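Standup notes
- DV: blocked on the single-chain target, sequence here:
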Amino acid sequence: MAICRCQKDCHQGARVIYRRGQSMRVMVYAGRDPLAGKKKWVSRQVRGTGRADLKEAKQIEAQLLAEVAAGRHQDTQGVKVAELVDRWLEWRQAVKPMSPGTAANYRRCIDLKITPALGDVAVSRLDTATLDRFYTELRLRGSKCQHCYRRMRNGQPAMRPGEVFHLAFTGKERVHQTDCVQGIPMTASAIRDVHAVLSGALQQAVVWGEPGIRAGRYGSPRGSPPAITRQDSGGLAGFGA
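- DV (later): unblocked, structure below
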């Protein structure tokens, strides 16, 4: 049975202590995830259900309330980059219509470049060093030839130099020249398209109130990557070609 119940419409700092078998559970409401819209709770368990245990539970409750007020639990369920860019593209098409070609190009940037490399990174932990590495990888080996992209859309693997293939429309035999398994340099215009998606999504995340990111200046990927101010920093193990 609950010892303290929060209101139906929870507000930040709402709390509840309830009995769970031979222990008590202390839960403090930490707000809603600004992008996913899900409620976030911070919880602790106290062994026992006696008066002394209830006193301990209330002490823990006070501690958690102070931590929530200080913003220490904002990132407990951080939104991932994949979720952010998907929601940004949906929002962008709704507020300012774009051509089908532009929408399809942004979708390809997300599916082929951003999500494989950065999709599992929490937005709150995406720092400038990680973005710099991402753009460097794109410049060095972020693309493939048109023949390999066409093969990949049909479920076939990319090709290495020296492989023999047939042109899609004429059927003529050709010898592949580039190493598209490792990847070839991406054009500056293609990198700018990827950057347009990432910088647009990160800027909108500031407006949406995503924790851990504050308004900053987003530079060109040719020089330095978007300059963003972080409370936390994180890394990335590797990138997909």
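- Follow-up: The chain is about 40% helix and 15% strand.
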